[in-house]
Design goal:
heterotrimer; A alpha/beta (263); B alpha/beta (354); C alpha+beta (84); B: 354 residues; alpha/beta; Rossmann fold; 2 domains; seven-stranded mixed β-sheet; five-stranded mixed β-sheet; 12 helices; C: 84 residues; alpha+beta; Alpha-Beta Plaits; two-stranded antiparallel ribbon; two-stranded antiparallel sheet; 3 helices; 21% helix; 20% strand
Amino acid sequence: MTVDVKLPEDMELVYKYPDSLTEKETHYCPGCTHGIVHRLIAEVLDELGIKDKTIGVAPVGCSVLAYYYFDVDFAEASHGRAPAMATGLKRVNPDKIVFTYQGDGDLAAIGTAEIIHAANRGELITTVFINNAIYGMTGGQMAPTTLPGQVTTSTPFGRDVRLAGYPVKMSEILATIPGSAYITREMVTDLPSINRTKKAIKRAFLTQMNGLGFSCVEVLSTCPTNWNVSPWEAMEWVKTNMTQYFPLGTFKMTEAVKALKVR
Amino acid sequence: MAKELLKGNVAFAESAVRHGLQAYFGYPITPQSEALEHLSRRMIEEGRVFLQAESEVAAINMVYGAASAGVRVMTSTSGPGVSLMEEGLSYIAGSEVPVVLVDMMRGGPGLGNIQPAQSDYFQITKSMGHGDFHPIVLAPSNVQEIIDMVGLAFDLAEKYRTIVIVAGDGSIGQMMESAELPPMQPVREERPDWALTGKGDRKEHNVITSLYLGAENLERLNLRLQAKLAEIKENEVRWKEYQTEDAELLLVAFGTMGRIGLSVVREARKAGIKLGLLRPITLWPFPEARIYELADQVRGILVAEMNAGQMVEDVERAVKGRAPVAFHGRTGGVIPMVDEILADLRKLDEATKA
Amino acid sequence: MGRGYVVIDADRCKGCELCIHVCPVHILQLSPDTFNAKGYHPVIVTDMDKCTGCAACAMICPDVVFTVYRRKRKPRKVAAAANA
């Protein structure tokens, strides 16, 4: 994007459109945190200088069209299978950086086996896991991470744990697996948390670049449309409600990952 | 290269290695697990990629990933595994990346048993997944043929950017026969320009997808796929004939059943019945034109299969009513005996005598 | 001119108002009387002179609407020399 503006000479550029994003305007709803996380990933790819050797794997979900928004080679996986597809891609392209971008249904329902086994093998891939406690693309049904009592289009009386079980805490589960090198849960509700999430994503990609093991950044995210709230209210809901059930923090970080210099 | 005594499963696995297989992702399932075991050693020895996946679902998606990166990749399984792979195969077909799948068929449906069968015919020739599509299906009948067809499968898959299924059965997989393996071919270094290898200094980033949200766009993909299938139908039909020149009755059978068919022809001729055999090599594209031709020459056609009647429907369709079509089949992994088939042949002979 | 300056790509804006909530000097609002190509009221700056160039807007914007500039800080040595 070119900027046609006459600025005084003592002004410097502080933030510009990331190279790793295409110019295409996204189809995401207003205020959807997909936009923020896409941007953070793109900024990280730019800053690490790995754009030209990165391959992404898109899920089935609202971000199924992620391949229009990132200016990197991309594959479209079937629902839940991104970690398996990424495994195939990485094993035959060991010098490239491979990441999956998955929602909660993709990763924690249909794809539970694939993510656990990718972590188990210590697959040198990075997963960005967008947890917004609902199935966005298909119209707001219950997700494995939907909170108890949460009303969705398939839990009209609120999630009843006796019938539908409890929300699945994937970061905690993945952290128990030896092949996992870096497992962390973040959110993007305000500036400090956005900065922490960006740093986590950068550490995760560095984990892969240094061959240290499987890395996954779970990002507590919003779905204003299906939660029936405004974008800012949705951010508040993540801060006050979701973090009660999904505590933020790093659940697994090997010594080698800890030692990485993440600027 | 010299002939050696080879087990079918080991033979097709080693053939793939010799034909430059770069990656294998599979899951154990009887009756083909020896292939996975053989590859677990050989692929590592040759510095190639091998991984035993957590399921057939995962395996086919790993194959999809590697195929998207433009490498020569294969998996192998049996009927229940193909069922699990159908989703992945449909995506692979829609994305037009080349994949070879070896299906060593067993008794079904359901868990069935581990005996040889041909009951996946519909599954693999009609679509092997949702959507309008056919893979190329090659049907070997012995160990040498499965060795050769693996090489052919890779060439066809890459030529047309499509799926090629090599359809054997448990007996071909388990039997040991004298056969010759090809010499070791080098692994291809370059990747096709559509492959996912990192954008590098390409002008545009590559995308491998089967998603086309706009109806006209998806129709365009389908028309392209159909045109490709038409080209395959035009150029890649293969079959073998045995004593059809003067045949009055025709036996149509594939794979192991085709092999038994050779004995049926010999026994029939001894009994004074002028029987010929047509053994389809490509189950898809099916040798319809040739069968239609032969239907004019013969009085009747007997189709023999190890299933409840699947290829017989394609024969009936090809014959267009020109000659009566009879069927002999056994299910459950039972292998028909020559005299059982002859009994049905005699019935057909009697029924069609002028 | 203030310390900061932002350029808004109005047609990218979806009127989500996240930036409005995080701007520390409260100079962002949705345009009351214009629409962009998508049909949203895009964000506008009410008083650019107050902009600090903190880039909070850019960091929370899901649609990469903002390009942010900031007056370079004088290097300490020069400032010290100036004060000497």
